[in-house]
Design goal:
By secondary structure, the protein is of the alpha/beta class. The chain has twelve helices and nine strands. The structure holds S-adenosylmethionine.
Length: 265
């Protein structure tokens, strides 16, 4: 993993990220909602690649799944190791320290948007294909190509010229590099996908693409106003987002997308 990415995660603690903001809560709730419809019933072996400190491993282990988490950061692996029904080891999505055909489901909720080279992302998909059993589901998260620009308005970053300069390259090439001149709270080195791009990568790795769904849709831009929706009408909000999750016209407005595939065997 590139040193600036490691430094970013050491500086801004990943544990607790999804509970710290209303848009983080929405990302978590919607990702969980999709996982609950896509994963096989427990007991099953889930490989959580880039699982950080176990934000999804913890509730999955609590449900009776056996989770093996892989992450390149020592701190994340140490925290995940103490979770119920969870083992954790250091590793990279491009070269998983895991036997062939051993997982009933593979999660890649993080690695793909930190790999800026397409060949590396296809390699990560190939590894997911190798370690998964025939018929297993693979769920991978990406960040939308347009999320940085929209975030620039939500948080006001676009008033700063350095953000606009960085954004020009992101929009043109997908590569986001917060190096020199950027603020430490701006996101670290990443790749921001076009809506169908991850599906094309997965297909190149030999996987069968089932569907691409938006996680938050455009609702993450409600920012602080999301809190009252989540407090008073969470199920109403989730039901409408579920209804339009595959709507192609909304995919690019979502901050995160999930590409759901199967190992064709
Ligand atoms: C934003 S966090 C997401 C964590 C969690 N899966 C979630 O969805 O909230 C991205 C995670 O991917 C991990 N990561 C980055 N590059 C990776 C790679 N090449 N292989 C595996 N994990 C990677 C990071 O260490 C970090 O824990």
């Amino acid at each position: 993993m590139r040193s600036e990415i490691t430094a970013y995660y050491e500086r801004l603690a990943e544990p607790g990220r999804l509970g710290a903001t209303p848009w983080g809560k929405l990302e978590y709730l919607r990702t969980w909602d999709v996982l609950m419809r896509e994963l096989p019933a427990p007991p099953a072996q889930i490989l959580d690649v880039g699982g950080a400190a176990g934000v999804y491993a913890a509730p999955l282990g609590g449900m009776g799944y056996d989770v093996h988490l892989i992450d390149p950061l020592d701190e994340h692996v140490a925290m995940a190791s103490i979770l119920v029904r969870t083992t954790a080891t250091l590793g990279d999505a491009r070269d998983l320290p895991v036997p062939d055909a051993s997982a009933d489901a593979v999660l890649m909720l993080g690695p793909l948007y930190h790999l800026t080279e397409r060949a590396d992302r296809v390699r990560a998909w190939q590894e997911a294909a190798r370690v998964s059993k025939p018929g297993a589901v693979i769920v991978a998260a990406t960040i939308s190509r347009y999320a940085s620009m929209l975030d620039g308005f939500v948080k006001g970053y676009l008033r700063e010229p350095a953000f606009g300069e960085m954004l020009e390259r992101t929009l043109a090439e997908g590569v986001h590099e917060n190096l020199g001149g950027g603020k430490p709270e701006w996101f670290t080195t990443a790749y921001f996908h076009l809506p169908n791009e991850a599906a094309e990568e997965a297909a190149d790795a030999g996987l069968a693409v089932k569907r691409v769904v938006s996680v938050e849709g455009p609702l993450w831009m409600l920012a602080d106003r999301l809190d009252s929706w989540l407090a008073d009408d969470e199920e109403l909000l989730l039901s409408w987002l579920r209804r339009v999750e595959e709507e192609p016209g909304l995919l690019g407005s979502s901050s995160h997308l999930l590409t759901i595939c199967r190992n064709p065997g």
